[in-house]
Amino acid sequence: MSTVQISAADVNKLRQQTGAGMMDCKKALIEANGDFEAAVDYLRKKGAKVAASRQDRDSNEGVVIAKATTDGTRGVVVELNCETDFVAKNADFVALANKFTDLAIENNPATLEELLALEIDGQKVSDIIIENTGKIGEKIGISKFESVTGEKVIPYIHGNYRLGVLVALNQAGAGVEEAGKDVAMQIAAMSPVALDKGDVDATTIERETEIAKDQIRAEGKPEEMVEKIAAGKLNKFYKDNTLLNQEFVKDSSKDVRKFLNDVSKDLTVVAFKRIQLGA
C-alpha cells in the first residue's frame, strides 16, 4: 500500500479532471502513488470493468439528438442510452449525447462503427463511453445513428429528447424550412414506414396482402373477389403508412405530397429518418 499522502486538493483536482466520484478519485490516487496520469488510467480501467459487469443490463432509457450542419444540407440523429430515467435527465448526460452528435456533424461518419471510432481530444468515442459507464455506474452506449443529405435538411426533437426526426427536402428557400418542420412533426406523430409506395419493402407488402386476404375470406367474400378487395386494402395501407400519401395532419383536405407542392412547385421529401427512444 502506498504511503504517499493524498490531499483533498489532489482528490478534487482529479475529480474535476475526470468527473469520477470523490472516493473513487482518492482510491485511484492511492493506487497510483499520487501519479495523476496513472490515476486517470486506473479510473478508465475501473470504468471498463464496470462496463463489462453491466453488459447484461437493459439500457432502454436515454436521449435522442437530431442536428443539421450549418448550411442545412446534412443531418444526423443519435440515440445515447442509459439504464434509468434519472440519468437520462441529467444535464451532463444530455451534454455527452450532444457532444457525440456534434462530432458526427463535423466528421460525417457513414456508420455507427465509424462514429464510435472517432476521437475527442485523442480519445475514441467507444472509450469515452466505457469511461462514463464507470463514472455514472450505469450501462451506457450509442444504439442508433442515422444521417441524411438534401438541399435542405430539417432536424426535429420531440418529447424531451425521446424521439428524433430528420427530413431531407429537394429544395431550399422561402417557406421550405417551415414546411420541413411541419413534415417532421408529421413523421413524429404518424410514424410512416416508407417515403412512397415504391419504397415499401416486399416483405411488408406480402405480409399486408396476406393479412388482407385472410380478413376478406373471414368475412365470407367469394374467392373471385379476394384479389380485388385485397388490392384496395393495400392502397389504404399505402395511404396510411407512406409519408407522401398520408393525410396531412394540419389540413386533412390534402396529403403530404400536395401540401409540399402547394408550398413550392415540385417540392418533395427525398429522405427521412425517425428514431424513437428504446424502439
How would you sum up this structure, described in words?
The protein has 279 residues and is α+β, with helices and mostly antiparallel strands. Among the domains are: 8-53, Ubiquitin-associated (UBA) domain (Helicase, Ruva Protein, domain 3, Orthogonal Bundle); 61-164, Tetrahydropterin Synthase, Chain A, CATH 3.30.479.20. The protein has helices at residues 8-18, 22-31, 36-53, 85-88, 91-107, 112-117, 125-136, 176-190, 202-218, 223-241, 256-263, and strands spanning 61-68, 74-82, 119-120, 123-124, 141-149, 152-158, 163-169, 269-276. A hairpin with a 5-residue loop joins β1 and β2 (74-82). α1 (8-18) crosses α2 (22-31), α3 crosses α7 (125-136) and α9 (202-218) packs across α10 (223-241). The longest helix is centred in the last third of the chain and has 19 residues, at 223-241. The two termini are 48 Å apart. The model has no long low-confidence stretch (mean pLDDT 93).
CATH topology of the domain at 61-164: Tetrahydropterin Synthase, Chain A
Number of helices: 11
* CATH class category of the domain at 61-164: Alpha Beta
Name the CATH superfamily assignment of the domain at 61-164.
Answer: Elongation factor Ts, dimerisation domain
Structural class: alpha+beta
Helix content: 40-55%
Question: What is the 3D form?
Answer: elongated
Mind summarizing the main beta sheet?
A: 3 strands, antiparallel
Low-confidence stretches: none
Order of strands in the sheet with most strands: 1-2-5
Order of helices and strands: HHHEEHHHEEHEEEHHHHE
Q: Examine the secondary-structure arrangement and name the CATH architecture of the domain at 61-164.
A: 2-Layer Sandwich
Quaternary state, please?
A: single chain
Portion in beta strands: 15-25%
Spatial separation of the terminal alpha carbons: 48 Å
Number of strands: 8
Mean pLDDT: 93
User: Any idea what the radius of gyration is?
Assistant: 25 Å
GO molecular function: translation elongation factor activity
Keywords: Cytoplasm, Elongation factor, Protein biosynthesis
Region (Involved in Mg(2+) ion dislocation from EF-Tu): 84-87
Domain Translation elongation factor EFTs/EF1B dimerisation: 75-278
